[in-house]
Amino acid sequence: MVRAPGRVNIIGEHTDYNQGFVLPAAVDKQMLFAVSLNQENTIRLVAHDLNETFSIAADEVRRSDTAWANYILGVVAQLQERGVAVPGFDCAFGGNVPIGSGMSSSAAVECGIGYALNELLNAGLDKMELARAGQLAEHTYAGVMCGIMDQFASLFGKDGHVVRLDCRSLEYEYFPFDTQACRVVLCNSGIKHALADSEYNKRRQECERGVAILQQYHPEIQSLRDASPLQVKAHHDALGDLTYRRCLYVVEENQRVEAACRHLLAGELPQVGQLLYASHAGLRDNYEVSSQELDLLVELARPRPGVYGARMMGGGFGGCTINLVQAEHVADFVAYMSQAYEAQTGIKLETYETSIVDGVSTVGN
C-alpha cells in the first residue's frame, strides 16, 4: 500500500519548464495504491474511482487508448528504459485528489506507482530519479510537456514546509509554512482543464522562441531563468508584443518566488499574499492562461477579512485558485465564496482546506 499526495504551488507558475524556481508543497489530498507482483506476464490495473479496468502484457507496454492507464504505463516504460525488469503486477488505485483542479492528480498517480514498483522490485532508484521517470511518462505517454515540479512535490513534500526547487540544478530548500496561523484554501472554479488539449504546450514554444531571440543579444541566456526583466524590456520590439509578454511574466515570476521565500523566513505573510496577487495579474494579462471564473474567484477573495492573497494555480484555463487565509477566518471565507460564486456563475463552488504533509510513502506494513 502506497499513498501519493497531490500538491499545491504557493507561487512560481509556468516557471518550471523554463528552468526557474517553484515553491510547492504536498497536501493531504492523495491517491492510494494497492500493488502486488502477480508472477505472470500481465499488468492488471483497476481504477477504483472510475470503476474501470485495463490489462496489458508486461513485455509489450506501449501507449494505449485508455487515458488514465497511460500515466501508469508511461512510468513502467521509464523504469524499463532504466534497466528495471518490470514483471506482471496487479494495481488498484483511487483517491481524493480532484481531477482537473490543478492539484496534479496525474503526478500523484505517476509517483505512487513508481514508488511502489521501486520498493517491490528493490530497483534502488532514488526519489529524484522517480520524479524524472514520472515527468518523462507525462511527456511520452500523456503528451504533456510538463516540468518536474509536480512529481518533485509529490515525492519530496515535507510536513509543515514548502520547498523551493531550482528546476535547473534540482537543488532544493525547505521553508517553514505554519498552517496553524495560515490555511491553504483552494476554490475549484468547476471548469476542468485538460492540459494536453490546452494552450500549455504552446506557451512552452512561445518561451523557447523568446529565448532564441534574446540569445542573439545575450548569448549567455540559455533559458528565461537567465534573463532579467530589464533585458526582456530592452528587446520588446525584437520579441514582438506576444512573446515579450510571455517572457516578462516568467522572469518576474522567478523574482516573486525568491521574494516569497525571504518573506516566509521573516514570517511576513501579508507580503507573501501580495506576491500571489501580482502573480495572478501576470498570469491573467501577460501569460494569458487565466479564465473569467478564476479572475472572479480572485476578486471575490481580495476584500475578505483574513485573506492574505489569492491567485490561479496550475496550468490554467480552469481548475483552482489558491488562497492564503487566516485560520480563524476560513469558515466565513468559505461560506461567502460559495454563496457569491454560485450567485454570479450558477456553478456550485467546491473548496478544499488543505494541510501540508510528507511526500509519497508506504501505508502500514
Radius of gyration: 20 Å
What is the CATH level 1 assignment of one domain? Alpha Beta
Shape: globular
The helix-and-strand class reads: alpha+beta
Question: First CA to last CA: what distance?
Answer: 8 Å
How would you describe the overall organization of this protein?
The chain has a domain at 2-177 and 358-362: Ribosomal Protein S5, domain 2. Helices cover 41% and strands 22% of the residues. The protein starts with a strand and ends with a strand. The chain has 365 residues and is α+β, with helices and mostly antiparallel strands. It has helices spanning 67-81, 105-120, 127-142, 149-156, 200-217, 229-234, 236-239, 241-265, 269-285, 292-301, 330-345; strands at residues 2-9, 21-22, 24-37, 42-47, 52-57, 89-95, 161-166, 172-176, 182-188, 307-312, 320-326, 350-354, 361-362. The radius of gyration is 20 Å and the shape is globular. Helix 2 (105-120) crosses helix 4 (149-156). The active site is at residue 150.
Give a brief rundown of this model:
This protein has helices at 67-81, 105-120, 127-142, 149-156, 200-217, 229-234, 236-239, 241-265, 269-285, 292-301, 330-345, and strands at 2-9, 21-22, 24-37, 42-47, 52-57, 89-95, 161-166, 172-176, 182-188, 307-312, 320-326, 350-354, 361-362. It is an alpha+beta fold.
